Amino acid sequence: MKPESLVYAAAGTLFGVLVGWILGAQQATMRAPTAPAAVAADTQSQPASPASGGQSQQPPQLDAAAVQQFMKQAAANPSSPAPKIALGNLYFDAERYPEAVQWYEDALRGDPRNADVSTDLGVSYYYMNQPDKALAQFDKSLQIDPKHVKTLLNVGIVRAFGKQDLTGAAAAWEQVVALSPSSPEGQQAKRALDAMKGAHPNLAGGQTPPAS
What we know:
mainly alpha, disordered C terminus, disordered N terminus, 9 helices
């Protein structure tokens, strides 16, 4: 058994504090997750289950009326990223990640410095079982804002659960704790680190995550 597997077995309960956190930045629909998920960049975001795990309940229905409304706005004002972001959020909430990706990418073409949308895009990649692409997108978010704590928290989640890289995950979470120890992200990162240290102290060594 790999050391990572031993850590998961010993620390699964404490890692459970991360279950339900979503990577996306704008979502506001609560669902019951069943496997480790990542954290939304938007402070209003709520849980959703990851693409790689089973889901305990159906995602919400896509709000067709809202989709039509924002599509009209996007068509009327193609240079505005706002309706495209809203469309990405609607599709994300409905767990229709390929459509969410299309709208987030379109929004970023008009607003390339939006770290929240960049992180939402990375979440969508993660939920489409593309952890390397997710990490590459998070790198872009951190180029925009190196102290974006939800992105850093998500880097740790994807490294831990998408790449089985617990050392890289620990390094990312340590940055979150250093930057914002009293925030919800800082508290989540600390709990995850405590779980790692309790199971295998050598894994939480403050090393820099490997490049994506």
